[in-house]
Write a structure and sequence with these properties.
Blueprint (H helix, E strand, L loop, with lengths): L2 E6 L5 H15 L3 E6 L14 E7 L7 H14 L4 E7 L7 H18 L5 E6 L1 E2 L6 H13 L10 E2 L3 H17 L5
Parallel strand pairs: 1-2, 1-3, 3-4, 4-5
Antiparallel strand pairs: 6-7
Length: about 180
């Protein structure tokens, strides 16, 4: 059984929800999981504290949460020594257009370059449009963006694009990676 840390950055809560689902899936597979919001971590990551680490963040205006970037940059030496995964949450991950999905890959690549971290496993996950939680300006801007991409524009409701079966498969893939790397205590 591996002890896995999942660190996430979230703005509206969808990435937290995904991190929780990944954690639950890993626990079903016999792993021990600790979930941490990136804004609550102040201390450096100790090499022997966990057997593996997964980090998730959501894309907003082409960047991830600064707390996630800071955590990764500050702990890249430890992350490079452990099985580690990164999941990126964005609306373009749900797009049927390959160019849109390629844009999401460029955001991930930029993050990896800025932090100098090369995760063992990277996965892009579709997020959500939570119109009912946005203020007027954000709702209006996201409605324009959604219209441009042919997405839903009814702002009276929310839209979740996350493929939960895909999330479960990603968690299972990471558990296999941890098992192959012999991270069990």
């Amino acid at each position: 059984m591996a002890r896995i840390l999942i660190v996430y950055g979230t703005t509206e809560g969808q990435t937290r929800k995904i991190a929780q689902r990944i954690g639950a899936e890993l626990e079903k597979l016999g792993q021990t999981v600790e979930l941490r919001d990136s804004t609550t971590i102040g201390e450096p990551l100790a090499l022997r504290a966990f057997d593996a680490v997964m980090i998730g963040a959501s894309v907003h205006q082409g960047r991830y949460q600064s707390a996630v970037e800071h955590f990764v940059s500050a702990n890249v030496g430890v992350l490079e020594k452990l099985p580690a995964a990164f999941f990126s949450v964005s609306l373009v991950a749900a797009s049927p257009d390959p160019e849109d999905r390629e844009d999401a890959e460029h955001v991930i690549e930029g993050f990896c370059e800025r932090t100098r971290w090369r995760p063992t496993l990277i996965h892009s996950i579709a997020g959500a449009l939570l119109y009912t939680e946005y203020d007027f300006l954000k709702r209006w801007i996201l409605k324009l963006i959604a219209r441009h991409y042919g997405g839903p524009t009814d702002t009276s409701r929310d839209y979740e694009f996350t493929d939960w079966d895909d999330v479960a498969r990603f968690a299972q893939q990471f558990a296999r990676l941890c098992s192959e790397r012999g991270t069990s205590r």
